[in-house]
Design goal:
The complex is a heterodimer of chains A (300) and B (253).
Chain A: E1 2-4, E2 7-9, E3 13-15, E4 36-38, E5 55-57, E6 62-64, H1 73-80, E7 91-95, H2 100-105, H3 107-110, E8 116-120, H4 138-151, E9 155-160, H5 167-176, E10 181-184, E11 188-191, E12 193-194, E13 199-200, E14 206-210, H6 215-228, E15 233-235, H7 242-251, E16 253-258, H8 261-264, H9 268-283, H10 287-290, H11 293-299
Parallel strand pairs in A: 3-4, 3-16, 4-7, 7-8, 8-9, 9-10, 10-15, 15-16
Antiparallel strand pairs in A: 1-2, 5-6, 6-14, 11-14, 12-13
Helix pairs in contact in A: 4-5, 5-6, 6-7, 7-9
Chain B: E1 4-15, E2 18-25, E3 38-42, E4 52-55, E5 58-60, E6 63-69, H1 73-80, E7 83-90, E8 103-108, H2 112-124, E9 129-135, H3 138-148, E10 153-157, E11 164-165, H4 168-177, E12 182-186, H5 189-202, E13 206-210, E14 226-229, E15 232-235, H6 236-239, E16 242-246, E17 251-252
Helix pairs in contact in B: 4-5
Classes of the chains: A alpha/beta (300), B alpha/beta (253).
Chain lengths: 300, 253
């Protein structure tokens, strides 16, 4: 049993936001290896998302430019939220308000009895004025978080971008505003080209990179954030097998997100969870004991 | 719950950039896709990260067959590897054909795959049908036909080296000239859009198009396979891959 944000979870694994777009689609997966799921980000208005192509295969990686295609807050409140009570696992609702005034429009959601909300301030596939990602603007992120915190009594997670000049500074600022956990991190903005046509594949030029290629980059960021703040870290980005998940915990992640690996293998979570249990058993350690363990070794 | 099955290749043929392979079921696991459905195919090579959506060329208790155009590293990996993981079967499938219909199957390039499966089903069900295949290179098609096809097939090749000389539009006009009242087609998007204008003109009552798109998941999770077809936006994996257009222009998914 894993204790995370005041909840007992059956596993430290979770399904990351955006991977399974609709609640009903989770039934295609075995949810046994997961402790909770994070739903696809909800925006205030419904969004069609970006024009095709929206996904592309990389080398040990995938690119996506979905563009937060979602039903919007109103439909979410009416159709998805009522189903959450019947869902077999704890659920985190992910939202992405684009401005301070939009935060106010999310009040009907904040007043619901929800365990946790993840504020996605780091989607690389939508525009945010002069800054491409909200979390790259620390002061603006602080204001948004402060406003959500003042109106929502449940657990508040912020999903940050890995592409930051100073990720620890952002982490500290957000913790000062009262966030309960940080999701480190999102996809990396990347570029893929059609060399025959001599042009970018995606209409928005850059797209989010995920998959095993980004794991070492994610681990570095988890490591840095773990050294900077005391809130639990959700590790997201690049896990393909149990060793990757253990690496995330050793670097400081309290729980580990499974993302695009599910597209390659819908049953990957079972293998990862089995591998974790075997490792912990072999080492006579608990999950809690390995969170950040590699930092202790380094500092000795 | 999604199915993921390991299969092993037992036979493979390749004619330039077109490859066919037959895989055997391993152990007791057998899958029963319907004509028009597809699998997400994954190899053990991690550098090819995402699965590739491939429709079924044929399937029975002895194994499953695929016909693949080698276009990039994904299809090349499938040809190189001896074992493949199949996720699925996924998507909807061709409806019918009921008896008494004049049925036409119109393929373009590697779009022959799902129509071959349907043709073989029609053969066993003793339904009458005609198959027309539009290809670029006739010599390649000749080898495929002689080694894989056991029914009557009319080929249109752009280079004129096999069958009649002509392109996808010629192939479409030809099959409609036979007076089909139900058409199944899988071809490059541009060819299918041309075919759509022809079937509207000729008032063909029931047309079923098989679409393809880039996908990450194949099962409705990622929202990656958005495609615009006949002015409508749809997700190929969940709303398709078969899009059915009836005579009153009503689109059924």
């Amino acid at each position: 049993m894993i204790r995370f944000l005041d909840k007992d979870l059956s596993s430290p694994l979770f399904i990351s936001s955006g991977i399974v777009a609709e609640l009903d689609t989770f039934k295609d997966l075995s949810l046994d290896p997961y402790g909770f799921v994070i739903l696809k980000t909800v925006t205030l208005k419904p969004r069609d998302g970006n024009p095709p192509p929206r996904v592309w295969d990389g080398r040990c990686a995938m690119f996506n430019s979905i563009g937060l295609a979602n039903e919007g807050l109103k439909a979410f409140l009416e159709t998805t939220l009522p189903k959450l009570e019947e869902f077999p696992l704890p659920v985190v609702v992910s939202i992405s308000p684009f401005s301070l005034s939009e935060v106010e429009e999310f009040l009907p959601l904040f007043h619901q009895n929800i365990w946790a909300i993840e504020l996605n301030l780091s989607c690389p596939n939508v525009e945010h004025g002069h800054n491409r990602l909200i979390s790259q603007d620390i002061e603006f992120s602080r204001k948004i978080v402060s406003k959500v915190r003042a109106n929502f009594r449940g657990k508040l997670i912020v999903k940050v971008s890995p592409e930051m000049d100073n990720l620890p500074a952002l982490a500290m600022a957000l913790v000062d505003e009262g966030v309960d956990a940080l999701d480190v991190a999102n996809t990396y903005p990347g570029l893929v080209l059609d060399v025959e046509q001599a042009r970018p594949i995606f209409s928005r030029i850059f797209a989010g990179v995920s998959g095993p290629a980004i794991l070492p980059l994610t681990l570095k960021r988890i490591w840095e954030v773990y050294e900077s703040v005391d809130v639990p870290i959700l590790g997201s980005g690049g896990v393909l097998d149990w060793k990757d998940a253990i690496s995330m915990a050793l670097s400081g992640a309290a729980v580990v997100g499974i993302g695009s690996a599910l597209y390659r293998d819908p049953h990957v979570g079972n293998n990862i969870w089995d591998g974790i249990k075997e490792y912990l058993n072999r080492k006579s350690l608990s999950w809690r004991e390995i969170i950040g363990l590699a930092h202790d070794v380094v500092s000795q | 719950m999604l199915n993921k099955t390991l299969v092993r290749k037992i036979e493979q043929k390749q004619w330039d950039d077109l490859a066919w392979f037959r895989c055997a079921w391993i152990g007791d696991e057998m899958l029963y896709p319907k004509p028009g459905q597809f699998f997400q195919v994954v190899t053990k090579r991690e550098d090819v990260f995402l699965p590739r959506p491939i429709s079924v060329f044929y399937c029975d208790k002895n194994g499953i067959e695929f016909l693949v155009r080698i276009r990039g590293k994904g299809s090349a990996a499938m040809v190189d590897c001896d074992e493949l993981f199949l996720i699925g079967p996924l998507g909807n499938w061709f409806k019918g054909p009921e008896s008494g219909r004049k049925v036409g199957l119109l393929a373009g390039g590697a779009g022959l795959a799902p129509l071959n499966f349907l043709a073989r089903m029609c053969l066993s069900a003793k339904r009458e049908f005609v198959v027309v295949w539009s290809v670029r290179v006739g010599d390649q098609a000749r080898k495929v036909v002689s080694e894989l096809v056991d029914y009557q097939i009319e080929v249109f090749s752009e280079d004129g080296t096999f069958g009649k000389k002509g392109n996808g539009v010629d192939a479409g006009e030809y099959i409609l000239s036979l007076g089909v009242d139900r058409l199944y087609t899988c071809a490059p998007l541009a060819m299918m859009e041309s075919v759509y204008s022809m079937v509207k003109r000729d008032r063909v009552k029931d047309v079923q198009f098989s679409l393809e798109a880039n996908m990450a998941c194949g099962w409705g999770a990622c929202k990656g396979c958005l495609t615009e077809f006949l002015g409508r936006k749809l997700y190929v994996c969940k709303d398709g891959p078969i899009v059915r257009v009836l005579g009153d222009d009503k689109v059924l998914r």
